[in-house]
């Protein structure tokens, strides 16, 4: 077999087990010999007790001798079993390894590259752990089967009363445990998945600590990790609740029948259902064989069994993911249109919603400006649209795919978000510009510098290789914004969200930047406007105004949106105020109204 898929690893193990039937039979035969002491313990003790009570010393001693001989034979059988066990688990490991390596090589050849050596090494370690766990599970299960089988035979030798008294509760405990196995496996998988998610989010945040701090995204980062931590705790609790039932099964299969036996013993003795020796023998089977076997069964299946199941599962899944594509299973957006549907967002559970039931689409290649009074939720909208904040209700779809279903790395490559506070890190200007696209060729960098108007700044600094101190200390606010904007301009992201990202630029520089992004190939542009001129340049405008939010062209909005007309009118009469400072008239009132809602 060269390719693993689905539950292929489990199927392969099953097939190998079937193929090793001979070794399994021999392993089982030695296990029967190994079971002799368990089978004979109760009967031998019962007979010995009865013989000694009747003064028959030699027959009594002979029963004890039989028991000791059985113990010796059992020790020999344990020793003879191991080669057969190795003949079962080693070929399974080899078959899994062969499948893993050959599929990795096949995948690499198909993709025209080299096999991922570290990935294969990781999978090999998992295969090795499968061998260990499978061996341990087989040994434990052999012990369980032998103990229970031996005890059942012995109990029948003692008589049907003993068999019923002990057998039924143990059977009930085993049945209940068997019924809990499927949900147990489900919850075990869920707990592992939640733990992985938590580790993934924590690792992501730690790995991006510099960017998180620079963008002031601590709250957002914390909310992602916090949600994952809560999900993990809840999955662990759900698993723990089920695991806790183990105590009940153990009680039903151990202390309960023993108590019943001891309580009913006088009555059983009086009516001749059991003799003294048989009472002691039955108690021996319960305490020496059945109860420990039940405990071992619960331990082995509840730990190694689940481990094995999940490792085989993952081996198949991880391998399939490695051999197809890093993004396998993650849906790919079919286009670059951004659709917000019945979207609401609230900061905190008791806060008023900032965005309420908002629906609009930014079509592929469109240029939309968002306008609205201060504090109405424009930045919040941009962060939700960029997938940085998770909507409280509704969805954001990119090319038809809910952002929630997109892989974070993929999302960051698709959407470029530039906040007001531009982030510049210590390094050369060139490194800062290529940060999101390190392979960009110098000609493209030079062209972007020209297009976005960075030329004078580059000359002033003395070239692209000039080092910029931490935080761009020697740059003006506007220059820092130009660096951040050019960085996204050079990136592969084709959905660009500018959240007042040009607020420190003069109107001409702002116009040049917006023009550059609007005419950039295949770019869908959403601009949170700092000046009304941004709206005049856009193809369409979204006026954010609480429940009265509306989308349209400048001409239409001038006729239909009093808020928009007010903002434009205010700006036209106060051109020296190029900022969108909220007037104290209707617009401001509407903003307050929206906040109240
Ligand atoms: N992290 C946060 N926690 C709680 N409330 C917040 C948070 N961020 C913003 N808000 C509140 O949400 C509302 C909308 O804020 P937002 O920054 O989105 O508005 P805006 O329209 O972009 O404002 P401006 O034009 O002044 O930048 C405001 O009332 C603000 O106080």
Automatic annotation (TrEMBL):
Annotated Gene Ontology cellular component terms: plasma membrane
Cited SUPFAM superfamilies: ABC transporter transmembrane region, P-loop containing nucleoside triphosphate hydrolases
Transmembrane segment boundaries: 61-79, 136-156, 162-182, 247-269
Residue span, ABC transmembrane type-1 domain: 29-292
Chain intervals with Polar residues compositional bias: 586-597
Positions of the UniProt region annotated as Disordered: 575-597
Membrane-related topology note: Multi-pass membrane protein
A Pfam match: ABC_tran
Swiss-Prot/TrEMBL keywords: ATP-binding, Membrane, Nucleotide-binding, Transmembrane, Transmembrane helix
Annotated ABC transporter domain residues: 338-570
Keyword ATP-binding: yes
Gene Ontology MF terms: ABC-type transporter activity; ATP binding; ATP hydrolysis activity; ATPase-coupled lipid transmembrane transporter activity
Protein's recorded name: ATP-binding cassette, subfamily C
Naturally occurring in which organism (per UniProt): Micromonospora auratinigra
High-level lineage: Bacteria, Bacillati, Actinomycetota, Actinomycetes, Micromonosporales
